[in-house]
């Protein structure tokens, strides 16, 4: 089991709302259709690089991740979503982003994130 943490450094506080709207109105449905498992989405309340928007996905393995992202980006609705959400925001939503793939430590047991005793 892997988890993907995607961290977006937002251009300004008002753009955070546009990212929430984008996930709620477009991406969550597209993710579901393409086999993604969305664990959650957050905005940073306290931290060094604010405003920041984050979301986490769960993957059985890296092959699943690769095939889901490939299908997602091949979907013409993704380009339309990008055009629509950037137009609604009136500019760039974020400066840059990071992707971290996380594998649970074997000594941590958690029903949400996997760990001890899980097949990895």
What features would you describe in this structure?
- By secondary structure, this protein is an alpha+beta fold.
- It has one domain (2-102): Alpha-Beta Plaits (2-Layer Sandwich).
- Helix content is 40%, strand content 28%.
- It is built from three helices and four strands, in the order βαββααβ.
- Strands 2-3-1-4 form a four-stranded antiparallel beta sheet.
- Helix 1 (13-33) runs antiparallel to helix 3.
- The longest helix is centred in the N-terminal third of the chain and has 21 residues, at 13-33.
- The mean pLDDT is 90.
Tell me briefly what this model is.
With 120 residues, the protein is an alpha+beta fold. It is 40% helix and 28% strand. The protein has a 4-stranded antiparallel beta sheet.
Helix and strand topology:
Layout: E1 2-10, H1 13-33, E2 37-43, E3 52-59, H2 62-74, H3 76-89, E4 94-102
Antiparallel strand pairs: 1-3, 1-4, 2-3
Helix pairs in contact: 1-3
Features:
single chain; 120 residues; alpha+beta; Alpha-Beta Plaits; four-stranded antiparallel beta sheet; 28% strand; globular
Contiguous runs where pLDDT drops below 50 for at least 5 residues? none
Tell me the series of helices and strands, N- to C-terminal: EHEEHHE
Please estimate the helix content: 40-55%
Averaged pLDDT: 90
Q: How many structural domains does the protein architecture include?
A: 1
Please identify the oligomeric state: single chain
Which architecture does the CATH hierarchy give at level 2?
2-Layer Sandwich
What is the CATH topology classification name? Alpha-Beta Plaits
Strand content is 25-35%
Class based on secondary structure composition and strand pairing? alpha+beta
| Largest sheet composition | 4 strands, antiparallel
Q: What is the overall number of helices?
A: 3
**The first-level CATH class name:** Alpha Beta
Dominant shape: globular
Number of strands: 4
> What's the arrangement of strands in the largest beta sheet?
2-3-1-4
Overall radius of gyration: 15 Å
For the termini, the CA-CA separation is 6 Å
């Amino acid at each position: 089991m892997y988890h993907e943490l995607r961290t977006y450094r937002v251009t300004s506080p008002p753009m955070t709302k546009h990212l929430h709207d984008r996930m709620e109105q477009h991406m969550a449905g597209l993710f579901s259709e393409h086999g993604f498992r969305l664990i959650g989405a957050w905005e940073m309340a306290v931290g060094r690089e604010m405003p920041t928007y984050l979301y986490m996905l769960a993957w059985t393995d890296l092959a699943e991740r690769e095939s889901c992202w490939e299908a997602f980006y091949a979907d013409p609705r993704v380009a339309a979503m990008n055009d629509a959400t950037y137009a609604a925001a009136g500019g760039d939503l974020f400066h840059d982003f990071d992707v971290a793939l996380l594998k649970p430590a074997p000594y941590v047991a958690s029903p949400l994130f996997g760990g001890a005793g899980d097949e990895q």
